[in-house]
């Protein structure tokens, strides 16, 4: 068994840190899958197949969590005993929420814009920039990791969740517009 | 016994025989079988030297005829000749109407969700038709390779849903084949191309077959093929090109859709020929006799063909765009576009795909054979013939999986393009006071409404202790294995009440149906099954024993205490004695199970030790 008490960072032989080299992570992921993937056990007895399936599932889960900055931040907060559930943890930053509302309206108005594709591109770029800024903040917050900074990290996570949702909606609209071409 | 066979570097694993394995491309129009011989993967010909087996089965009073002979009869005997069974597999009767083209079959009115086609030798399901094709290919492989196949890899369109995958696996079971893996067709093509060229980078595989379309975006890195995204349409292919051309001919010739099935078949054939001819010629002559003495003459040029098929080609380009977005890459990031499937011979398709990806698509491996060749390479690895091979395929699920929640909405549990194997769980609760049961409805698809998604299974979790609404905690866990097949489990957490299903598609055959079919085919075999079973299990026991001995020699001292080692060795001797004396295959099988159980801790330790070894060299301190 992969030791389930081990955290995902340990599994990949990486230090517990928010800033990580994604290329390095991917290399190790592939190395681990070479050992545990069910295809390595195609002619093996059932018992080993089950074990391999379980291990490979776990490795995939760990990889997906660490690869994505938002999931990685949530995971690190959980390791610190923070509850990041949506209901209990939403941002109280009024200015941010106001900005979100404005961006939503802008997105809704895109359709009637003179050049919807260009407008949407602009919005997507803007959201990407904001997401990047949050990731940079998280790097500092999770590095310092004082109680206060972790609280701030939780806030950043919540903002990223807003931004991600908005981004997906903008992408869905982009797909819709493309279908019309 | 792969785990126990992992050898130390520089030390070879226990020598073992080359195990026969084959890759099968079970296509809509044509099927092929390939195998690795002397290190080279190649498609295998039949006695007449042909590699392609038309995926056509004709049922006669004497039995089933498969291949070219059956296809020739399609016009004269349309009711008993089943073409393109792949378009029907894993689908319900109600869905067949939505498929393009006209089906000339008589469907039996049976009390089953699985469509059955009436033929002179009884009603047959698409699963049985596919099994006939698989049998012929397996026989061809065994005759060519000179032995029994230990297992096969069968390719399926990446966009096949769970029901279609299950049904394909059922067909293999019915044909008596051991399926190592269902492999996605574009991934198989990538393997054939990638290994050939050692091409690193991000690739797009555009696979347009007779009846299905797939697009896959994958990254190749040091022998690992990582699928980033996949998309497509499981009911769109070159057959649809033929249908629009046939409809155009009918319109031109004034033939109504009430024309006899034989004429419609003939028209589709003419349409296909015209389409194929236009890959080189700029115009073709057409002549149609309506069977009542009237005939029509005309011509089809390339521009008209392009106009007719453009809406269909556009649909495939939209799917490419979606797949790129899911993969998070843009057309410029794509190193190569590989064209797979016979329908990519149509020039218009190449032109439009080249335009979209802004690169000349690769067409240099025979698009008909590339999938089978890739499957053969994977089969060879899975058979254990290449223990040191670096190749590994990491595939994804093509469609999101979820369950029905309040108001007919679908809550997604595993999003599409998640790497498999994968396990995800989500908690739900009761919505009524004292509710003691909960229905779990499993769905597949991207839409938000239940009615727009594909229903995979329904089951009930009963015995929930009565509580106020919202107090129960019901955990629904989805797991998808490396074949892309789903298993669902629901559990009430406070009391531990469980219910689970192996997702059996609504349109698949039941286990009993398969068992019945197998039984009736075995009854004719006239073989001494019991003796055969003892022999099989003896071979299996010998394999397990040999592997365990090799493992003990390699690291028994390192990983086991003296007492543990004695336990393992005693269990090993126990199986050896049993295998020699037993006259009952099941008893040996049980013995193997007991040995495995006794060695479970050892196997786990070896796995952990392997993981540690894979990660050595990069310990945490490396970063400090």
Mean pLDDT of chain A: 86
The average pLDDT score of chain B comes to 84
Tell me the number of strands of chain A: 0
Q: What is the terminal-to-terminal distance of chain B?
A: 39 Å
Characterization of the model:
The complex is a heterodimer of chains A (181) and B (624). By secondary structure, chain A is mostly helical. Chain A is built from 7 helices and no strands. Chain A has helices at 8-11, 22-36, 46-67, 69-79, 94-109, 116-144, 147-180. In chain A, α3 packs across α4 (69-79), α4 (69-79) packs antiparallel against α7 and α5 runs parallel beside α7 (147-180). In chain A, 34% of the residues are buried. The mean pLDDT of chain A is 86. Chain B has 624 residues and is of the alpha+beta class. In chain B, strands 1, 2, 3, 4, 10 and 11 form a 6-stranded mixed beta sheet that branches. A 5-stranded mixed beta sheet of chain B has the order 17-12-13-14-18, sandwiched between helices. A 4-stranded antiparallel beta sheet of chain B has the order 20-19-22-23, with no helix packed on it. In chain B, a hairpin with a 4-residue loop joins β25 (486-492) and β26 (497-502). In chain B, α7 (238-253) runs antiparallel to α9 (302-327) and α14 packs antiparallel against α15. Chain B is globular, with a radius of gyration of 27 Å. The two termini of chain B are 39 Å apart. In chain B, 45% of the residues are buried. Chains A and B meet through α2, α3 and α7 of A and α1, α9, α11, β18 and α15 of B.
Tags for this model:
heterodimer; A: mainly alpha; B: 624 residues; alpha+beta; six-stranded mixed β-sheet; five-stranded mixed β-sheet; 16 helices; 26 strands; 38% helix; globular; disordered N terminus
